[in-house]
Design brief:
The complex is a heterodimer of chains A (about 350) and B (about 325). Chain A has one domain (about 20-325): Thiamin diphosphate (ThDP)-binding fold, Pyr/PP domains (Rossmann fold). In chain A, about 45% of the residues lie in helices and about 10% in strands. Chain A is built from 12 helices and 7 strands. Chain A has helices at about 5-15, 20-45, 60-65, 80-85, 90-100, 135-145, 165-175, 195-200, 225-240, 265-275, 280-290, 295-315, and strands at about 75, 150-155, 180-185, 190, 195, 215-220, 245-250. In chain A, the strands form 2 sheets. In chain A, strands 1-2-3-7-6 form a 5-stranded parallel sheet, sandwiched between helices. Chain A is globular, with a radius of gyration of 20 Å. With about 325 residues, chain B is of the alpha/beta class. In chain B, about 35% of the residues lie in helices and about 20% in strands. In chain B, the strands form 3 sheets. In chain B, strands 3-2-4-5-7-6-12 form a 7-stranded mixed sheet, sandwiched between helices. In chain B, helix 3 (about 60-70) runs parallel beside helix 4 (about 90-100) and helix 9 (about 245-255) packs across helix 10. The longest helix of chain B has 15 residues, at about 5-20. The two termini of chain B are about 40 Å apart. The mean pLDDT of chain B is about 95. The chains are: A alpha/beta (about 350), B alpha/beta (about 325). Chains A and B meet through helix 6 and helix 7 of A and helix 3, helix 4 and helix 5 of B.
């Protein structure tokens, strides 16, 4: 074994517990596999609605979520499957929701764009670009008023930083020094238009300056770098120093939605980013470090496939909602049905 | 019973609920140091402190969105929007987030959020500070819409809003803040949603009046009385939920109905009420369902023009007389 390799082992294991590395590897694979299976099942007809896959962006979702604690909360986006899995979402209930079945996270009423689980601290995916950012700030406001050492994290894309919701929420969080992390997954495209045509600044993290808190840039395809940056931001938030904006530079390997003709970018560009895919890069690092053998990782990969097989079969066999369910859950109190 | 102004009644409801429940807090533009531009929260900062009486930036999206996030996280926020016209600045948060959070989550999201807004024309305030936007949101399932007209109802309905688990849009007409009326002192006095008030009984015509217009309708009823026409005046108090039964019972008795509101006539709250009566009570009607409302133009600044556009007591009298009761 070379000296360089020895150093890598030392660095990795000194800095990160082995269990954490294994969990990171499991989760980024689980997110990727979930996306690939969801895409296939949509084509196969099990899933009736839109899918905005996060293939290529697994490291941002998993790295950020693993840096949070169980009581912390996230607000997610239209490209949210990775965030939900990262925060502990169960692929069975997620797949059932995508398939519009009763046992789904939202009883089949939400779909991919609206999955939430308040027990896990998931305030919800969101169909409106930037819509979840003020909501995460509100969770941070609640923590702040109650003097709880919890943190909220808002995921959003580069496109959302052009929405008023981002700017108003960032300003409020800055003024009140709220324990919130603005986590921007900059995948270079807001729907079908490149960032360069939507914003006059190259690094969106500088936008944080206007609101009085730091903005940092991180390689969004490096799960450990994302984890480190988020840990630091969470620590800052918990100690009462206020928000951080993290800009994670990454790339969406598939279309904005499944079926997107992607006329706005070249195949060469997509292929060049596939070479920077976060999953093989992390795998290589783990094997090279010697902390995990190839066989160890294969075992994890196998368990992920098994888990998704089970999730798809769970969804496919799950009951559909009854028609009367459409009228339930609009209000806590319907005043004997008068609200309808 | 002691008398309070409409403004004092709202203030009392907020203070009592904030003393009762540490999760209730108030946020909005100028609600703290300034005490609210209409003075409703005038001394609340002193009693409750900056944590619970929060001056915000002029950022309606952030106010509503962060109030929603706080509500989902166990708080019971009162978010004040200084002028109802500015609700549209927070349109996405109200329509797509607040209203739908519970449903989209399969019933799991709890959204005990009360949005207090001022509404109506306070006189020469122009087209962007005078609107009555209740019906903008009646078409959005998931919201409750409350329009108090008296100090007692303001207090009792606000308490129901603050003790409930659903998002409420609470419309306070600016010209009502100064009116006085009896208000029960019982801190547990509440007015349930979905119960219209028959404010004056009569047998000849039903006047359904919303918010400020209740007082114009009562004035009109006084005049009509002298002409030998007995008008029944009904205040729905909440538009969502709407107490159809009380409205239908009144129309059954009188056979004639005039609906009065300050919102514009086209697709205003009266359109929904008229449709309900047409669907469910047409056989009891002896004449057309009439609506008295603001003309379908933005509200003008000129006092003469504004007065011409807004509905008034004379318009209500004209409508009732058109029905040729005698």
């Amino acid at each position: 074994m070379t000296e360089k390799n020895n150093k890598e082992i030392e660095n990795l294991t000194q800095k990160y517990p082995k269990e954490l590395l294994a969990e990171m590897f499991r989760l980024i694979n689980l997110v990727r596999e979930f996306e690939l299976r969801a895409i296939a099942e949509r084509r196969g007809g099990l899933i009736p609605g839109f899918i905005h896959s996060c293939v290529g962006q697994e490291a941002t979702a998993v790295g950020a979520c693993l840096a949070l604690k169980p009581g912390d909360m996230i607000a997610s986006t239209h490209r949210g499957h990775g965030h939900l899995i990262g925060k502990g979402g169960d692929p069975r209930y997620m797949m059932a929701e995508l398939a519009a079945r009763s046992p789904g996270y939202c009883l089949g009423r939400g779909g991919s764009l609206h999955i939430s689980d308040y027990n896990l601290g998931i305030l919800g995916a969101n169909g409106i670009v930037g819509g979840g950012i003020p909501i995460a700030v509100g969770a941070a406001l609640a923590f702040s008023i109650r003097k709880q050492p919890q943190v909220a994290l808002a995921f959003f894309g580069d496109g959302a930083t052009n929405e008023g919701a981002f700017h108003e929420a960032a300003n409020e969080a800055g003024v009140w020094k709220l324990p919130v992390i603005f986590f921007c997954e900059n995948n270079l495209y807001g729907e079908g238009t490149p960032q360069s045509k939507q914003a006059a600044v190259k690094d969106l993290s500088i936008r944080a300056t206007s609101y009085g808190f730091p903005g940092v840039i991180v390689d969004g395809n490096d799960v450990l770098a994302v984890y480190d940056a988020t840990c630091k931001a969470a620590e800052r938030a918990r100690s009462g120093e206020g928000p951080t904006f993290i800009e994670a530079k990454t790339y969406r390997q598939r279309g904005h939605y499944e079926g997107d003709p992607q006329v706005y970018r070249t195949v060469e560009e997509i292929e060049s980013w596939k070479l920077k895919d976060p999953i093989p890069a992390f795998r290589k690092k783990l094997v090279r470090s010697g902390v995990f053998s190839d066989a160890d990782l294969e075992e994890i990969e196998g368990s992920v496939i098994m888990q998704l097989n089970e999730a798809v079969s769970f969804a496919a066999n799950a009951p559909r909602p009854e028609l009367k369910d459409a009228l339930a859950g609009v209000y806590a109190d319907t005043h004997n049905g008068l609200v309808f | 019973m002691r008398e309070l102004s409409f403004s004092e009644a709202i203030h009392e409801a907020m203070c009592e609920e904030m003393r009762r429940d540490p999760n209730v807090f108030l946020m909005g533009e100028d609600v703290g140091t300034f005490g609210g531009v209409w003075g409703v929260s005038h001394d609340m900062l002193q009693e409750f402190g900056e944590e619970r009486v929060r001056d915000t930036a002029i950022s309606e999206i952030a106010i509503i969105g962060s109030a929603l996030g706080a509500a989902m996280t166990g708080m019971r926020p009162i978010a004040e929007i200084m002028f109802g016209d500015f609700l549209m600045c927070a349109g996405d948060q109200i329509v797509n987030q607040v209203a739908k959070a519970r449903f989209m989550s399969g019933g799991k999201a709890n959204v005990p959020l009360t949005i207090r807004v001022t509404s109506g024309a306070p006189g020469s305030s122009g087209a962007q500070h005078s609107q009555s936007g209740e019906s903008w949101f009646m078409n959005i399932p998931g919201l409750k819409i409350v329009v108090p007209a008296t100090p007692a109802d303001a207090k009792g309905l606000l308490k129901t809003a603050l003790r409930g688990e659903d998002p409420v849009l609470f419309f306070e007409h600016k010209m009502l803040y100064g009116i006085k009326g009896p208000v029960p002192e019982d801190p547990d006095f509440v007015v349930p949603f979905g119960q219209a008030a028959v404010v004056r009984t009569g047998k000849d015509v039903t006047i359904i009046a919303i918010g400020m217009m209740l007082h114009k309708a009562l004035e009109a009823a006084e005049t009509l009385e002298k002409e030998g026409i007995q008008a029944e005046v009904v205040d729905p108090r909440t538009l969502v939920p709407l107490d159809k039964d009380t409205l239908i019972q009144s129309v059954k008795k009188t056979g004639r109905v005039v609906i009065v509101h300050e919102a514009h006539k086209r697709a205003g709250p009266g359109a929904e009420i008229a449709a309900v009566l047409a669907e469910e009570a047409v056989e009891f009607l002896d004449g057309p369902i009439l609506r008295v409302a603001a003309k379908n133009v933005p509200l003008p600044y000129s006092p003469e023009l504004e007065n011409y556009v807004l509905p008034g007591t004379q318009d209500i009298l004209n409508a009732v007389r058109f029905l040729k009761i005698k």
